[in-house]
Design goal:
This protein is mainly beta and 275 residues long. Helices cover 10% and strands 39% of the residues.
Length: 275
Amino acid sequence: MANVVELTYYPIKGCAGTSASEALVTPAGLAHDRSFMVVSEEGVYRTQRRDPLLAVVQPEITGDGYRLRLRAPGREPVDIEVDTVGAPRPVDLFGTAYQGIDQGDPAAVWLSDLLGSPSRLVRVPQEHDRVTGGRTPGTSGYADSSALHVLSRSTLDQLHRKLAERGAHPLSMERFRPNIVIDGWDEPHTEDRAHRITVGGAELGYAKLAIRCAVTLVDQRSGSRAGPEPLRTLAGYRRAAEGGVAFGAKFAVLRTGKVSVGDDVIVSRWGESEL
């Protein structure tokens, strides 16, 4: 029987994740996941593609979502009272216009100093009505696309075998930034074919393959780019029909509920891989 072995949510897009033993699955994914985003002064999103140092920012958010602490190695933390009702400002995410509530100057100064470029922190407004695509439509906060990224250990194990054949070192799971890690699927990339799954009290619908980008090249501990892997190796066996390389799958939320480490993963509908 397959089961959940890791749960991680990422309060700020592009920043470090928080491991959890249990989490609420909301319509937009794990509670607090990508509910904040760092933007330029003009409102354009920042990610590790261009700002790899985001990886060393360690956000800590309270369960009610009203207090946020930003930490990073060698820097004094900053505490923020989260603004959820302020006037939204325009922000840009991959060329699409959204709204964000600015979280004030202390967060902006702290992030600007760390990244070496003027930056602001914004939060998803309550009226955020983003619609995500794929085979199962849904919604999400400031995630790249769908609400949840699912990855299995067998998928990573296969990559490790192929990296070893090249004389390359294994990579940690955090390099791929999944929300839910599943063990017990013996065949790699089973998540590509699990088109409807029940996990704890939640039900998820397959949306699309996770197409990988330069974020996978960033060492998540140091915030620095660390060479051509895994994209070089993935290009040899995981090229997607739509372009790029695929590793993991994205899911939309069909039913909200609590999910915990150790929960069984039940597949109620299988399908063909889009690869």
